[in-house]
Amino acid sequence: MMKKISSSSRTKSQANDRKQSELIVCYSADSEVKIVHFNSKNNGGLATGMCSSSKEESIRFLKQFKKRTLILSLLPKSEYLLKIIEIPEVLPQEVHQMLLLETEANLPAEFGKPSISYRPIFCDRQGYQRYEVYISRNADLEKHVKHLEALGCNVDRIIPSAIAWRGILSNADHDLDMLVVNSQQQGFMEIVSVGQNEAVSIRTVHSKSQQGKKTWAHEEALAECIRSIVAQSSPESFPLTIGWIGKCCNIPIAGNSVTLKEIKLTYENMFDGEEDAGRGFSVNAAAFSLTTHCSTSLLNVVNLIPKTILDKRLQCTIRRNIVGGLVILFAALLLAYLANEIAIHRYDSILTGINRKVLAIKTNGEKIGRRIEQLEAIRAARSTRNDLYHLLGALHHATPSGISYSNVELNENRQLRFRGQAKSLALPFLLPQELEKERAFSGVVLKDAGQVKKSGGTITEFRIECTLKEI
After folding, report:
1. What is the pLDDT of residues 75-93, one digit of tens each?
2. In 89-199, at which residue ranges do the beta strands (DSSP E only) sit?
3. Degrees (nearest 5) of the Cα angle 59, 64, 66?
4. What CA–CA distance (Å, rounded) separates 135 from 115?
5. What is the spatial distance between Cα 65 and Cα 27, in angstroms, rounded to a whole number?
6. What domains sit in the chain, N to C, each tagged with a CATH number?
7. Which of 125, 189, 209, 240 has a CA 20 to 30 Å removed from the CA of 217?
8. Cα separation, 157 vs 155, whole angstroms
């Protein structure tokens, strides 16, 4: 049984919830993307948009608007499932996980990993909560996002079409029992109605469907669907008012049980006009609905964008921040270096005058002695500066797979002590031979090796001593 959406019931739950006054909505069909920017604050609603198959054109169009403007992708019903699920009352942060468990339990194994979003609806069962759950394959959503990115649209939200069309149905000015959205170019329609507890029912009617050997036209398949809905309606609800978005069809239904009403939005004339019906969903109407009838919190909970995509974007953001931080650090170090060089240059000129006086007093022998001491210090520093590098490189090259080190000690006499673990008792006996092959080690001796019980199992521990050569 169908039910009209009460504007009063809608405003009770959303009266204090902020709405997005400005949105960008996109819809892709094959190699083309349709983008609409809608601002509800401009003269009651101003839409600008474009259709493009070029990534560069899409990016150029989106650059006109604020970076903080949300970009939404409208997901057609053919790409998601809609189910009503009841669960016991839980904390708000536990709802998503509970619904996901219920969804996975009722899906076939071949469906794959699902992504879900949801909308709370009225529940008359005490101690329970009821939700309208939107379900799609995670892999399909990732493909959907990548396809839009290839066309220049990095979407922030993926919104099921049921949310947008519910907003049109809830508009008291239209007074609709049912809504039909005709996407002629893609060859399907979406038929939307509202059942008990304001749960949305949405069906997809394809332009051609096979029944035995007979091919049904678009209009005939739609008429069958409407007859089914009329049969389920009570007599007092007649005539049913069916709203229509897109190119209207002639529906051969006898009697006065159905009235067709074409939905016209005043701002639609500012973008595409009649051409909109033949180039995918009426994105204009969807943008109007999502802006004027959907709260920010609702757009967040019905978002179907996969967590894997969000994680990848977060990683990219972190990498960009790290690179940006490194660039800033490098610039700061460069400025500090230049400032230091300038100061050194200034003080060098002062020091030069002092040195001239000092050189007049000191003998040539004192100067030579000082230089020799400096060269000796430099030579001593150069002879030992790469010890750790050679040690680690040689140790990495000589260590067989299955051996790890827990302690490495190097004293002032260049004596090395290694402690570590091995996967088998035989590996520590092979290690001295491998270390002797390296130029960095000499006098390699395996001091001890044995197995030790730990955490319900055994591991092999060993200790090796050797001398670090000068290279």
Report:
1. 988 899 999 999 999 999 9
2. 114-121, 128-137, 157-160, 178-183, 188-194
3. 105
4. 6
5. 18
6. 7-305 (3.30.420.380), 318-384 (no CATH), 387-468 (3.30.1360)
7. 240
8. 6
